[in-house]
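This entry is set out below.
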Amino acid sequence: MTASSPDPATPPTAASAVRIGIPGGREVTHRDVAANGARFHVAELGDGPLVLLLHGFPQFWWTWRHQLTALADAGFRAVAMDLRGVGGSDRTPRGYDPANLALDITGVVRSLGEPDAALVGHDLGGYLAWTAAVMRPKLVRRLVVSSMPHPRRWRSAMLSDFAQSRAGSYVWGFQRPWIPERRLQADGGALAGELIRDWSGPRPPEEEALEVYRRAICIPSTAHCSIEPYRWMVRSLARPDGIQFNRRMKRPVRVPTLHLHGSLDPVMRTRSAAGSGEYVEAPYRWRLFDGLGHFPHEEDPVAFSSELINWLKDPEPDR
């Protein structure tokens, strides 16, 4: 489903820009669930063991449109949620630190009536999936992370690897007040589409898909809320709360983990992501997609979904 170009004079509503369909005519169920003191929008398809899909920046639940269908067809209950402050979820004035955002995720698992879930996270969603697996391991059956290293690895790379710090320069740019929000929403959200195109490999999402993301980023307050987690990640580096979080993440991940990455990712270098397995005391599998960029699940959805489903169905994933 596509949307018309957003008019800055009439910002889109969450309902019109977010509660949309997916390719192929499959009807997803849109609903709101309460968790961790807020309301979260989810899109659901299929029945079976729960797989909770977590989007990254600058996207929302719709980035998982291909995986929703593939997972449902494979016998899973596939649910893609909008993170706090994005899409159809509540835009709260605070609560964008990773520990609280991870509690949003595990709270949604409970609100969906499930004992646990396989978490699949991309980019920021991957950062939060790592965090949730450490904080609430009993609620995480399996962990799948794409295009994001373990939080301790991310911190180390951004601070000590000049090439990674330069590749992730957008994170430093987000520290300025108000300017990043205005740039994201200018010209009908044009920058959001440009970032997705620039961060992709040779096969970026089609123009119609980029238009969907441009429209969603123009929902009032979305740009600000999308940036707030990155502001915390940088501004807390030397603060007590950030130091405490970093220490907390020393606790190993003790659930089977699949780590996916595109070899051409321009914003998260392969070198930075590789090695995250040192924080996993469980079966860990690293899979590098040759010729893909930062959005492998959209650039080659068939290959990504096949890898994901085969691993989720493997009763004894290799270490």
User: Anything to note?
Assistant: Strands lie at 29-35, 38-45, 50-54, 77-81, 117-122, 140-146, 257-262, 284-289. The mean pLDDT is 95.
